[in-house]
């Protein structure tokens, strides 16, 4: 190769930065184009090991974006994960690269529903966050991801704190409208957990308004789903069903996880209103998708609907709770424990009701103790 044809590594790194910005904004087409250009230029780039590692990290992050937008795109993410682990094992990283490695790994584990591993990775990334000094949008991205994982762990104070810090940055970043919507949705969930449903509904409606303004279909259906959740908490189940159905009507981009989850919630809501015919229809549709795509948490949750409402069998309900406990899904244990206890109480199945109330209480204790935050 002649020296004239060699591209300086700093120019390629600059294009990688643009690629990463496209990824963070979920601009798939622009990200794909930038990735293709980088792949060509890196072949004739002057040698620099750090830039090559940065490329491997962005390949992984790019696939995480595709998995978020199109969860049925395939299993490439597992191969990218193994490749990155190998790169990490053969290379000493520091500063920015160390930060990105742990940050992206945290995102990967979060998508795998391994929340403890995810948080541990984020904590390691936080130790290196000073290496991205001046990159306010990147700090906001980190704060948002921390808010997200803490929300799923029901650590409301931490989640709300990080979400507000992220939002404060994003509102001054005009190109990050989608992230502002995501922050609103996390804040919605935290208000629901605090039983402040009116405040939650306000943020969910704002998220929907912003999502429609930006024209992002996947955000619109997320916002519709969250409004449905608010009405579910208000026990306005007919209203809730309408918003869940509206969310299902947004079919692109295809997301089987979202579809299965929404159908599962609809089956639950319809069962609670004693519309067992509709509940069974939604149950069967959700079960079919969960089986086809191996969505284990939905498959287990459907056992609750079947065992309580469609075919009275508490053993399969207990199976679901064993799964929740194994995966440390304590928020699900608490939510469904109370709901099942209420349902069984109405049937005057007092002993069985108390069993599930106790499961809910134990789950609440685990959440309050913060045991899901401990390393295994």
Topology:
Layout: H1 9-24, H2 28-41, H3 49-69, H4 76-90, H5 95-111, H6 115-126, H7 136-152, H8 156-170, H9 177-193, H10 197-214, H11 217-233, H12 237-249, H13 256-272, H14 276-293, H15 296-310, H16 314-326, H17 330-346, H18 350-369
Helix pairs in contact: 1-2, 1-3, 2-3, 3-4, 3-5, 5-6, 6-7, 7-8, 7-9, 8-9, 9-10, 9-11, 10-11, 11-12, 12-13, 13-14, 13-15, 14-15, 15-16, 17-18
Could you describe the 3D structure shown?
By secondary structure, this protein is mainly alpha-helical. The chain has 18 helices and no strands. The radius of gyration is 22 Å and the shape is elongated. The longest helix has 21 residues, at 49-69. Among the domains are: 148-234, Serine Threonine Protein Phosphatase 5, Tetratricopeptide repeat (Alpha Horseshoe), CATH 1.25.40; 255-376, Alpha Horseshoe (Serine Threonine Protein Phosphatase 5, Tetratricopeptide repeat).
Structure, briefly:
The protein is an all-alpha fold and 376 residues long. It has helices at residues 9-24, 28-41, 49-69, 76-90, 95-111, 115-126, 136-152, 156-170, 177-193, 197-214, 217-233, 237-249, 256-272, 276-293, 296-310, 314-326, 330-346, 350-369. Among the domains are: 148-234, Tetratricopeptide repeat domain (Serine Threonine Protein Phosphatase 5, Tetratricopeptide repeat), CATH 1.25.40.10; 255-376, Tetratricopeptide repeat domain (Serine Threonine Protein Phosphatase 5, Tetratricopeptide repeat).
For the secondary structure, the number of strands is 0
Main β-sheet: number of strands, strand sense, barrel status? none
Q: Total number of helical segments?
A: 18
Uncertain runs: 371-376
Order of helices and strands: HHHHHHHHHHHHHHHHHH
* Binned strand content: under 5%
Q: What is the correct CATH architecture of the domain at 255-376?
A: Alpha Horseshoe
Shape: elongated
Say which CATH homologous superfamily of the domain at 255-376 is assigned.
Answer: Tetratricopeptide repeat domain
- Give the helix proportion (percent range): over 70%
Mean pLDDT: 86
For the termini, the CA-CA separation is 50 Å
- Give the class-level CATH name of the domain at 255-376: Mainly Alpha
Classify the oligomer: single chain
Q: Please name the CATH topology of the domain at 255-376.
A: Serine Threonine Protein Phosphatase 5, Tetratricopeptide repeat
